[in-house]
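step: validate -> pass
step: tokenize input -> pass
step: predict -> running
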Amino acid sequence: MPHAEPLSPARPSVPLLQKPVVRNVWPFVVGALAILVGLVLSNVLPGYFVYLAISAVIAAIAIMGLGVVTGSAGMIALCQLTFAAIGAWMVALMNIWHAPGGFVVWLVLGALVAGVAGILVGLPALRLRGVNLAVVTLGFAAAADVTLVQIQFPGSADAISIDRPAMFSNDKKFFFLSIIVLVVCGLIVFFLQRSRWGASWKAVAFSERGTAAAGQSVQAAKLTAFAVSAALGGVAGGLLAGQVQLPFAASFTPLQSLALYVLAIMSGAHLIDMAVFGGILWVLVPELLKRWHIPQDWGFVIFGVLGVQALTSGTSLGQGIRNLIWKRQDRRTAGAALTALPADAGDEAEEIRTTTTATLDPALLTGEPVLSVEHLTVEFGALKALDDVSFTVPEASIMGLIGPNGAGKSTFVDAISGFLPKHGGRVLLGGRDLVGLSPTRRARLGLRRTFQQDRVPPLLTVGAYLRFVARRRLSATDIEETLAFFGCPPARARLSSVDVGTRRLVEVAAAVLAGPRLLILDEPAAGLSHDEHLALAARLRELPERYGVALIIIEHDLDLVRSVCPMLTVLNFGTVLATGPQDEVLANPDVIKAYMGETELLS
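step: predict -> pass
step: emit ->
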């Protein structure tokens, strides 16, 4: 792919390098401050409050794990304390065996075993979602609870206490150790959330199809989320075993897992600070009820009411607080869209207003095809959605795919991008047959697509989404120039703060940065004003030469099609009416007849 020339003189590199350094340092500063606060609290809190504080830290780690699988990846997991029980069981077993390494090593081992269990429990998530997945995870928690009651924890029958590390032998010192573990877990989650794993969790929660089309394995995203969440649950359970020193099954019941899940939803546990807040509530609410002489089981009712409120409002308490903090930033970035195009965009838009049709380079007709569709047929029972569709798309060209509603355009895109694997005929990308390949594999080979519906995950920033879709290392300059080229908000802007039309532009920009051989744009101008259509058209015309990518543009706006696409293919009732240079296709009587109501647009 040829390197794109910059739109303007390169900016000084120092400011671009300073922001990542600050981003990477401040989490460690916050972590160091948290450890310092923990050291102070461990020395000033009375013994009973130290014990409660340990419980709060343990709950915060477990809720942090739920923040990964539920808050980020959007899957329902009602067995978090079962993973905690696995971690506690491993610590108790290692204690009985006097395994080398001591408590900290046992804690890590418990987390690893719980993580493996999380992968096994997550396997049903590859096919199940919603209530069905909730039933499976709750059933696993119930089965594990019955098993624990029967076998008990190693050493519990003989009252063999778990040995704490010598340096953290009493409750005050063990609280300090738990703070250190919390900080380490928080840092791991922080950087995972900003890694490709984290982006895949947020993407799969919003759209599995969009995730696969970006070249990311949906299965891997789900299983890694379950594994990390379960491992954090294992850490929490191991700490609990060290806290009580004689764990019992009553500490890990399915009802408590359910309450923990509700609390995670209510607090917004995908945010690390809100997970800590949730851990404090886990201890604070029952303690207040105890002091007010109210049965502590009412705490589950309170958590349930708060959880229902969060689910019905669509906003957790933590997210609500963050939205208030970010409100000013949202106002600054929400309006940034095509109006932010470079100064020359207006001239190019005006050029399109006065241009009747896109010109065709004759060399394209003899060039090597990047896409060859041969006798593509898709049947749904007795209905043939596509019938013997054949055409080619030359390299670095622009093909418009048009047709009336129900012509088969969406079916065509789904078929060649891998979402409809059962079809007749062949689809070749650069001469390679794509038969049997998943959407993820096709995307990685260089076939990318966008969607009619919004598939851009709002929990990511613009820059994070571009890096996720591109699947390669991008410099700040690459991102900055591409966003400016398409008139998108800056990389630091949160996608939740921009409108749907702007997110569609970001989706196109991200797909272009992936460096595909073929990019299919499914109604890219949807949600844009007429002037924005024209400005987008100016940019689309430049893409083949600037980025070396061939385009298939599916669009109902024939003004945009005529100004951008020198070649057209027309579908009607699943068959190809015409394909070739634009002027010949639009003059075809069959094409005019198929459009009927749009005849005046074609004239």
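step: describe -> Confidence is low (pLDDT under 50) at residues 1-21, 333-346, 351-356, 599-603.
step: cleanup -> pass
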